[in-house]
């Protein structure tokens, strides 16, 4: 995200938060444990709630979280990390180790050395992708052989990310993050240090759009989108919740 786009994102809450909120995102709990001496494991439980008496829909992939400064056009849940009152606009603090939960893939969590764990995972994936290469190549060729095919593929993926909540429905989720206890970060000309005695907070955002996706949808998919009743737009934020980065 460019600096200008991020500034625009920061001011969007002022446009929407004064209105009645049809959607609420809540951080239910944040717990932590030092799974190994060099690593802290965070478990974050959160919910997304329809506060209205009507079924509502919006673009969202509720179990994918990315930093708020990363991509304003994403359909993810966004998060911000704060040290005291100051937002930390940095990447690489958290990892998810998603490969551990892939069905059929081995669990590398018993390898405590991070470098060895990454090498074992990379070796497995390289071998796996060699076996799958032919089918992947065929699939990619069919869908992305030209510009139209590429747009059709992306349009269908976007349409499939439409998220629906029934009246007064609340859905809960849990995500596990890992922190390698690295404290020094640098982004462009800015330097950040996670103070061992500091107080830190996280906050979740939903950045919901509709018309802005028109160019990403083929005509028939955009027509389908326009026919969906109670399609929600706006920016919605959770409360800040403390997260433990202390020694």
What does this protein look like?
With 247 residues, the protein is an alpha+beta fold. The chain has a single domain (3-99, 162-243), classed as Immunoglobulin-like, CATH 2.60.40. 27% of the residues lie in helices and 34% in strands. It is built from four helices and 13 strands. Strands 4, 5, 6, 11, 12 and 13 form a six-stranded mixed sheet that branches. Mean pLDDT is 83; it is low at 1-18 and 99-103.
Question: Quick recap of the structure?
Answer:
With 247 residues, the protein is of the alpha+beta class. Helices cover 27% and strands 34% of the residues.
Note the gap between the termini: 32 Å
- Profile the largest sheet: 6 strands, mixed
Q: Regions with pLDDT < 50 over 5+ consecutive residues? A: 1-18, 99-103
Q: What spatial form do the alpha-carbon principal axes imply? A: globular
The CATH topology name reads Immunoglobulin-like
Give the C-level CATH assignment: Mainly Beta
DSSP helix count?
4
- Secondary-structure element series: HEEEEEEHHEEEEEHEE
Q: Total number of β-strand segments? A: 13
